[in-house]
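Pair request: fold both.
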Amino acid sequence: MVEARAVIKNSAGIHCRPTALITQEASEVDSVVTVVSSAGSCKLGSALDLMMLGLETGTQITLRVEGPDEEAVAEQFKKLFETEFDFPDAGA
C-alpha cells in the first residue's frame, strides 16, 4: 500500500463535475484508491460516496492505493485532486 497526501485546490471543491472525472479515471485503473479526510473515507468507485465527503477548497486528504503500479496511481490521483478545474459557466 502507498499513501499520498493532497490538498483540494479547486475553488468550488470536489463537486459533481470533478467527481465524475475522478470516478471515471478510478474505473480505468486496476488499483483500489481510498480517499481519507477528516469527514470520513471512501473507495473511489462511487460518485455519491466521494461527494458525501464534502471536500472543499483547502481540505487535506490522504490517498491510499493498493494494487499494481501503486506509486504511479497515487501520483495520478494526487494531481487530479489538486487540479484547479476550469469548467465553463453553465449559464454562459
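--- second member of the pair ---
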Amino acid sequence: MKQRIDKWKQMVANNDPMADQYLKDITAEAKSEGKIDEMNEAIAYLIKSADSHLDNIEKKVGEYTMHQRLGNLSEVINLAYIARHYFGKTRQWLYQRVKGQMVNGKPASFTPEEEATFLGALNDIGLQIATLTQRV
C-alpha cells in the first residue's frame, strides 16, 4: 500500500490527470483490505496539498500589482512627480513597484508603509484636483 500511495503522490506532483482516479482505486483497495492507516496517510497528504494550494492562491492575490489596481489611472497620473515628492526616489524605483517588475530576481513591491504613502499621495492629488475644479 505504501508504494501505491507513493506512486499517487508522484502522480499528483507531476500533475498527472489520472491521479484522482488512481486515488479512488487505492482508497477502494484500502477499504476492502482494512488498511485504515494507509488511508489516513493519503488523507493527511491531501490536506497538506490543499493547504499548499491555498497558500499559493493567497500569494497570487498578494502579487496583484498596484498597476493592475490602478487600471487606466496609471497612464494619467504623473508617477515621476509622486516618486520625487512623496518618496524622494526615482521614477524607475516607483514604476518597478507599481508594475511589480523583477528586481534582484523577485517582483518589486511596496512595503506596507510605502503603499500607505503611495495611496496617501493619490488622495492628496485627488484633493488638489477637487479643490481646483471647485474654483472653476
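Observation on the second member. The longest strand covers residues 102-103.
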